[in-house]
Write a structure and sequence with these properties.
With 185 residues, the chain is an alpha+beta fold. 28% of the residues lie in helices and 39% in strands. A 5-stranded antiparallel β-sheet has the order 2-3-6-4-5, with helices on both faces. The radius of gyration is 22 Å and the shape is elongated. The two termini are 19 Å apart. The relative contact order is 0.20.
Length: 185
């Protein structure tokens, strides 16, 4: 299992024009399929007049959850080139949407593949690529006497403390830690 992954820091946009067709590209950092669905729904509303709204996403530090969608373009000419650009940069937790406005001239399968690839590449070139640690959540419950020991370990592993509490002689801490430290707590 991976300890870190590469993604984008914030949303980015790109554009590619070919023979009157315009390809608007949008890259978004995402962390769940629900986020992907919400963004896609918003694009369908905002760009209701577009001919095609194609996309690809990759989720998870191990890059096992992904999908590419051609949205009516010939099979393999839109979603796969978008996903190919995501893969070429080794990115995950990302959604790339490319919106096509048809310009009246058919581009052919080769032209479509190039157009979707170039549009995606432009958005990704405008994005800040960052490396993130894989984090896991932990809920700790321990007697007050162990507080110093626990806090020392949390500091050593640079845990991010979300919430602390004390009730009936027990301390509780909710925190996020890097996955590689899961066995230290």
């Amino acid at each position: 299992m991976a300890d870190s992954y590469i993604t984008i820091a914030a949303s980015a946009e790109g554009i590619y024009k070919e023979k009157g067709s315009k390809f608007l590209s949008f890259a978004h950092p995402v962390s769940s399929l629900d986020e992907v669905k919400i963004l896609l729904e918003q694009y369908r509303k905002d760009y209701f007049d577009a001919r095609h709204i194609c996309y690809a996403y990759m989720l998870g530090p191990d890059r096992l959850e992904f999908r590419a969608n051609d949205d009516g373009e010939p099979s393999g000419t839109a979603g796969r080139p978008i996903l190919g650009q995501i893969n070429s940069k080794g990115l995950t937790n990302i959604l790339v949407v490319v919106i096509r406005y048809f310009g009246g001239i058919l581009l052919g399968t080769g032209g479509l593949i190039v157009a979707y690839k170039e549009a995606t590449q432009d958005a990704l070139n405008h994005a800040q690529i960052v490396e993130r640690d894989v984090m896991i959540s932990r809920h700790l419950s321990f007697p007050y006497e162990k507080m110093n020991e626990i806090m020392r370990v949390l500091k050593d592993i640079q845990a991010h403390i979300l919430q602390q509490g004390y009730e009936d002689g027990l301390c509780t801490i909710d925190c996020e830690i890097r996955q590689i430290y899961h066995d230290r707590i």
